[in-house]
Amino acid sequence: MSADTVMRPTAVLGRPPGRWQRANKATLAMLGVGVALFLGFGIAAPNFLTFTNLSNLATQVAITLIVAVAMTFVISTGQIDLSVGSILAFTATCTAEMLQAGWDSSVVIVVALLAGLFWGAVNGWLSAYQKIPPFIVTLATMSVVRGLAQLWTKGFSVPIDARLFVAKLGDASFLGLSALAWIALATVAVGAVLLSKLPFGSYVNGIGAQEESVRRAGVNTARIKMITLMLTGVAAGIAGLLTAARLGSGSANSGQGFELTVIAAVVLGGTNLFGGRGTVLGTVIGALITGVIANGLNLLGVSPFLTPIVTGLVLLAAIWLNLRGRAMADLFAHLTGRS
Q1: What is the spatial distance between Cα 14 and Cα 9, in angstroms, rounded to a whole number?
Q2: For the segment 245-297, what is each residue's pLDDT rounded down to a tens digit?
Q3: What is the CATH number of the domain that holds 226?
Q4: Range of the domain at 83
Q5: Rounded Cα distance, 58 and 86, in Å
Q6: In the chain, how many H helices and how many E strands?
Q7: Is the pTM of this model over 0.90?
Q8: What is the largest distance, in Å, between two alpha-carbon atoms of the chain?
Q9: What is residue 247's three-state secondary structure?
Q10: Tens-place pLDDT, residues 80-117
Q11: How many domains does the chain have?
Q12: 339 in a domain, yes or no?
């Protein structure tokens, strides 16, 4: 038996899925929600649809999207990573501290990425090879990593000299979009190819759906699961570097609640919270929804303290749809006669 055999169950059934089955109904539904929110805020807030605000929205969403693309792989395998906000804070403070100490920007960028990779590898090794549930592992590292950042900085923000390359990166733009937005778009492109066009993506979804079958096909499932957590570590490292660049300082308090926003973006987009189905395009839609909510409420003058409440409620609704979506989709397909 080959790995490809496990990845193509429809071939065994002898009947290819119809267009309705192939479509990700949750993603399509969230696309509709996103369009409705976009139009609604466009009507309620005259400044919402201006180029300046939309460019600003792209920048606001960029850091979330970079990590959410990586989180799509983690959740698709049936895991979770709660430590991304803390890794972001750790790499942001590392970046600022090293730049203040006179390190070259190119070295600082490499070290920041390696720091993210290290914490991702720690999460992956403990959960995939030591069989500790990833929820527990990443909950622990969430506390440890942020604690280290706070111990290092003693709770103070560390400023970055505006003349340095990293600081200039935070303000750079091209064709009306910030450098952060372009980096996010590149991340989306790489993630989409990796998940939908390469065997790695098939293994990721296969592990989330039927891990034992994938393992029996000769795939090292522990290694795949560890790699996905390393991806979120690197992505959070990039996010920390870009956060420091954008704000002009590094703080151990950065990224508070960031993991909720990232997970919300992934689940809102239609990735199954329990694994087996991931969609990078859906994650883009989910990240835009979270960004549009925050941006639109801000333009309407609503208290910023309301934003996490709205995000949490939307996430709860998305999880409910995740649980009920299959039954609802089957019922709709039956009523409409689609196959």
Answers
A1: 9
A2: 999 888 889 988 899 889 989 988 888 888 888 889 999 999 999 899 888 88
A3: 1.10.3470
A4: 24-38+46-327
A5: 23
A6: 15, 4
A7: no
A8: 67
A9: helix
A10: 999 999 999 999 999 999 998 889 989 999 999 999 99
A11: 1
A12: no
